[in-house]
Structures are given as C-alpha cells and as structure tokens.
Amino acid sequence: MLLQLLASTNFLLGVYDAYLTNRRMRAFGKNFELNKLIKGLSTHLGPELAAVIGVLGPCVGWTFIFSYFNLPWALALMVGFNAKRFEIQLSSAAYEKSALQIQKMMDDFGHRGATLPPSEVTDKDAQKL
Predict the structure, then answer these.
(1) Nearest-CA neighbor of 11 among 65, 64, 60, 72?
(2) What is residue 120's predicted lDDT score, i.e. its pLDDT?
(3) How far apart are CA 105 and CA 25, in angstroms?
(4) CA distances (Å), 81 to each of 10, 73, 119, in order?
(5) Among the four residues 24, 33, 118, 122, which has the most C-beta atoms within 10 Å?
(6) How far apart are alpha carbons 47 and 24 in whole angstroms?
(7) Using alpha carbons only, how large is the chain's radius of gyration in Å?
(8) Do 83 and 13 contact (CB within 8 A), yes or no?
(9) How far is 50 from 18, CA to CA, in rounded Å?
(10) Distinct helix (H) and strand (E) counts, the chain
(11) Could you read off the pLDDT tens digit of each residue along the chain, which spans 129 residues?
C-alpha cells in the first residue's frame, strides 16, 4: 500500500513538473531551460515531447525500478526530492509571471514610442512646457 502511494505521488509530481517545463519553454523559449537533455530534445522533438521524455522518462524509470525491487525508502527519498522541486517550481512560476508582465509593459511602451505617458511627466518635461 505504501509503495503504491509513493509511486503514485512521485508520478503525479513528475507530470506536474513536465507540464510546467513545457509551459515555460513555450513562454520563454528553449534557452530558458537549464536541463541540457530537455534543451537538446526540444530542438529536435519540440517542447511537449522533450518535457515528457526529459522529465517523465527518468521519473517513471526510477519509480518502476524502486517499486520492482521493493525499495520504499528509495522511493520516499525520490518523492521528497520531487516535492522540493515542486515547491521551487511554484516559486519560479511567480517570478515568471512578473517577468511576463515586465515584458508586456516593455512591448507596450515600445509601441507607443519613446515618450512618457502624460501621467508620468517629469519635472524637466514640465519646465519645457
């Protein structure tokens, strides 16, 4: 029972990590990914398949090995590692959201031209008027 719970938890954490990896590569490009295997695979296979192979492949493989040899302690260590990675992914998602907002603001500013909006007139600009 414990082995099944650990294997299921580990697999679900791996699925979530693969989802976030795919989403991150779509939003920021493959060069944003630090994992060299996933970065290389995404060049040839695309971000979806690269995330599945690069994240879920090892996760499923190790889960199967640990389950087959009845090693709940090793599987528990892997779940703990993936849980910490899950926490890091959540905090990274908050930073990515901020980065996307900044990028959107920069794009909007570039489309308007290189002038400040009327609400942001500086003292030097006021003296010129």
Answers:
(1) 60
(2) 59
(3) 21
(4) 9, 12, 49
(5) 33
(6) 9
(7) 22
(8) yes
(9) 9
(10) 6, 0
(11) 899 999 999 999 999 999 998 988 888 888 878 889 999 999 899 989 999 999 999 999 999 999 999 999 999 999 999 999 989 888 888 888 888 888 888 888 777 655 555 565 566 655 655
Contact assessment for residue 16 and residue 89, using Cβ atoms and an 8 Å cutoff:
yes
Tokens of 48: 């979806």
Would you say 66 and 78 are in contact if contact means Cβ atoms under 8 Å apart?
yes
- List CB contacts of 28: < 8 A, sequence separation 6 or more: 96, 99
Cβ count near 41 (within 10 Å): 21
Mapped onto helix, strand or coil, the DSSP state of residue 89 is helix
| Sign of the torsion formed by the C-alpha atoms of 16, 74, 39 and 86 | positive
What's the pTM value of the predicted model, to 2 decimals? Answer: 0.74
In the block, tokens 């007139």 appear at: 121
